[in-house]
Amino acid sequence: MTGGWHLIRLILRRDRVLLPLWVLILSALPAAYAASFAELTPTEESRALYARTTAGIPSIEGMLGPIYGSSVGALATQRAGLTLLIVALINVLVVIRHTRTEEDAGRRELVAATVVGRHAPLGAALLVVIAADLVLGLLTAAFMGLSSGSLLLGMSVASAGIVFAAVGAVAAQLTENAGPARGLALGALGVAYLVRAAGDATGSGLSWASPLAWSQYTQPFADETWLPLLASAGLAVLLAGLAGWLSVRRDVGGGLLPARLGPAGSTSLTGPFALAWRLQKGLLIGWSAGFLVFGLAFGGAVSGATEAFNGNPELAELFARLGGGVSLTDTFIATLLGMAAIAAAAYGIQAALRMRAEESAMRAEPVLATATARVPWALGHVVFAVIGPVVALVMIGAGLGLTYGADVGDLGQVPRLIGAALAQAPAAATLTGLTVALFGLLPRLSAVAWGILAICLLLGQIGALLQLSQAVLDLSPFTHTPRLPGGEATALPLVVLTGVATVLVAAGLWGFRRRDVGV
Amino acid sequence: MVSGLHKTFGRTHALNGLDLTVKTGEVHGFLGPNGSGKSTTIRVLLGLLRADSGSARLLGGDPWKDATALHRRLAYVPGDVTLWPNLSGGEVIDLLGRLRGGLNPQRRAELLERFDLDPRKKGRAYSKGNRQKVALVAALASDVELLILDEPTSGLDPLMEEVFRECVVEEKRSGRTVLLSSHILAEVEQLCDRVSIIRNGQTVETGTLTDLRHLTRTSISADLAAPLTSIPGVHDLVVDGTRVRFEVDTDRLDETLKHLTTAGVRSLTSQPPTLEELFMRHYQGVAS
Which of B177, B212, B247 is the last residue of a domain? Predict the structure, then answer.
């Protein structure tokens, strides 16, 4: 670990904005949920009713995790099941950003040639994220009001982060560059989530196989126990040790999975669009497959919810009020699709930012120095950034429709839910358009698109709670998307959003034609 | 090709009234210290950057407005080649060739052979020199009128530099124009018909190598029959008995030699200015 301290300072310097931002925002989420429950379910009876019902609905337990107790804290803890997922995701991304991405870019070499120990780069990255996770845990507790329950919840969230930081560290040793490493680690996270969801939805012990579940079995604000966190800590130590062991057994810059030779020539790379397809197809396939799997998994869990409500109209009414929808199944699916819309927008932004990545890496320059004009070059990527999220949404709609439809014996659900998923596409496209506009007009600020998506996510999650005015909430395109299925399908907002997206894309292309390339 | 070009990036004045003319069919050396504006000029010529003021013409067209049409007629090799990590070298060569409007497959195979390049490796697996070779093969196998090469041999081993030189000579013979930005003076001396030297975004010297040599000094050392204590118009004179060493401006050589013969010359060696000295004089100006 010689020189580790300098590397830690380097990481803190590079992430001086991002790191405090995600720690703060994510640690505020559970407190925001708690405040929301305190308002929506002020009485002990209403909370008990909510808890009882939730416990009887496999799809909700599947999505969020089990519910223990009926205090405000317990209800918020279940809701924070999704926070766990986001914290784990960010941990994976940050660890890979400071390990494999550095190696990929050749910067690690520069550092490795100085007085820096073999374990220092990986150790420094892990120490920083672990410290950040612990701070996040403490802040979570502080925001909720310090108590044994809030502290346990905070530390449970932190442990999920730490385990997946270690997963990211292992993935970073296996592949030669950052993209596949991220794919591997996020794939592991996806599997962990699905295993936990399946286990919790069916009430079987399967969940224990998923480290995400350990963070929920601590039962904060109920039968509190720190024991599962020991398992998390043990796994994290094991994985981090494995990553360290692997990292000294391979070359700097090399991976453990061998790099393969490619073809000696190409007949298919005929133009800018073919090149964009080569650069974008991994994203398209990955996101579409992920959306399909989630659709299939949750579609199967939906029908259980309907049964639980058949005998209890009172409950159905309460949930309809909580969800703002009509039928409970529809409310559940509409909520799921609302989240899918944010994810689809993230895909759109990621795909559009490939253009900026190509430009920054100086790979756009040799292409634009050929007979390829700027707009066709950019359009190659824009097409994927616009169509890709639509394809992914169709996949989740189809997945939901297939398993839910099979369950209730009505395959007419497939087109119905595909339609409902597609209603989310214009809102996602607006964010894609915004990214293209930033790329064309303010290229250095392209990555700000992620910040805007985060704001939209927050407005949707806690905007109503903070009693922000409708005018503020209206800034998010996702506010205007009709809640489908079940809600009223209105075409006007979809047309307007599509128009806004089109104008933004056009503005971006207009700007890109006029600006310097490579700035 | 270019006159009075200005370009600023924020507060940095990258080009400060730069002039550059490359004649059809010549190999033109483009020289200057790091950061003097060579790559910026090339990017303006490629229509990637827009000059703030001044005019640029390329193959009879406007490099900004007619970019696409002009790019069909030229091939470019950047100084720092980055490849797509997941595309093989062969795929990149074919892609860039096709985007330019065609590649000569025979020439491609021949160049791969001569540059000893394995086209099956993925972009990330290539060393700097091999990435450079990928871009060179793609450019040299294209059927174009103009080659714009920005420090194309950086990272190549001496053997490959030699192959590169042979290729440029062949290109010239087949009537192509080459703009070659380089730091390797032997390369410039061997290949270029004319050179332009730039500094701080301005052209400080342009002409054939013979022209430029006239602007510099010749070193003379001589053994004289009788001692001479002073020789007018020379620099760095060292007198050691009858031996003298000094430098003289090339245009005053005749006059100085006449003066030497008055004392009687027993032996004389004269060293023409090397290209290195020529550049040192211009490059060092940056520090002063």
Answer: B212
Domain end among B187, B212, B237:
B212
Structural domain includes residue B284: no
Extract long-range pairs of A1-6: CB within 8 Å, 24+ residues apart.
Answer: A1/A117, A1/A119, A1/A120, A1/A123, A1/A124, A2/A115, A2/A116, A2/A117, A2/A120, A3/A114, A3/A115, A3/A116, A3/A117, A3/A120, A4/A116, A4/A117, A4/A119, A4/A120, A4/A123, A4/A124, A4/A127, A6/A116
Classify strands B12-20 and B146-150 as parallel, antiparallel or unpaired: unpaired
- Across the interface, whether the CB atoms of A263 and B96 are under 8 A apart is answered no
ipTM metric: 0.79
Residue pair A486/A326 in contact by the 8 Å Cβ criterion: yes
Give a yes or no: residue B256 inside a domain. Answer: yes
Q: Which residue of B has its CA nearest to A375?
A: B68
Nearest-CB residue to A262 (from B43, B78, B91): B91
Asked if the Cβ–Cβ distance from A279 to B94 is below 8 Å, we say no
Say if B147 is an interface residue toward chain A (CB within 8 Å).
no
| Inside any domain, residue B283 | no
Give the pLDDT score at B1. Answer: 60
Residue A305 reports pLDDT greater than 70: no
Q: Which two tokens mark B179?
A: 């703009």
Other beta carbons within 10 angstroms of residue B167's beta carbon come to: 19
What is the rounded average pLDDT of the residues A194-216?
A: 88
Using CA coordinates, name the residue in chain B closest to A517. Answer: B48
Are both B254 and B189 inside the same structural domain? no
Contact criterion met (CB below 8 Å) for A297 and A195: no
Is residue B64 within 8 Å of B50, Cβ to Cβ? yes
Of B69, B76, B120, Cβ closest to residue A262: B120
Contacts of A279 in chain B (CB under 8 A): 84
Mean pLDDT of chain A: 88
Domain count, chain B: 2
Tokens of A32: 């925001």
Q: Nearest C-alpha of chain B: how many angstroms from A348? A: 21
Nearest-CB residue to B43 (from A259, A270, A518) = A518
A36/B209 Cα distance (integer angstroms)? 80
- Which of A151, A164, A257 lies closest to A210 in space, CA to CA? A164
Q: What is the CATH number of the domain that holds B231?
A: 3.30.70
How far is the C-alpha of B147 from the C-alpha of B156, rounded, in Å?
18
A264, A371, A518 ranked by CB distance to B100: nearest: A371
- The SS3 assignment for B242 reads coil
Give the number of residues written for chain A: 519
Residues of A whose CB is below 8 A from B67: 368, 373
Average pLDDT over residues A52-56: 80
Categorize the per-residue pLDDT at B288 as very low, low, confident or very high, splitting at 50, 70 and 90: very low
- The verdict on B130 and B163 lying in the same domain is yes
Same domain flag for B148 and B245: no
Q: For B138-175, how does the pLDDT look when each residue is reduced to its tens digit (9 = 90+)?
A: 999 998 999 999 999 888 998 999 999 999 999 999 99
Select, from the ranges A151-165, A285-299, A486-500, the one with the highest average predicted confidence (pLDDT). A151-165
- By a Cβ cutoff of 8 Å, what residues of chain A touch chain B? 104, 176-177, 259-267, 269-272, 274-275, 278-279, 361-363, 365-373, 514, 516-519
Q: Are residues B46 and B87 in the same domain?
A: yes
For B62, other C-beta atoms within 10 Å of its C-beta total: 14
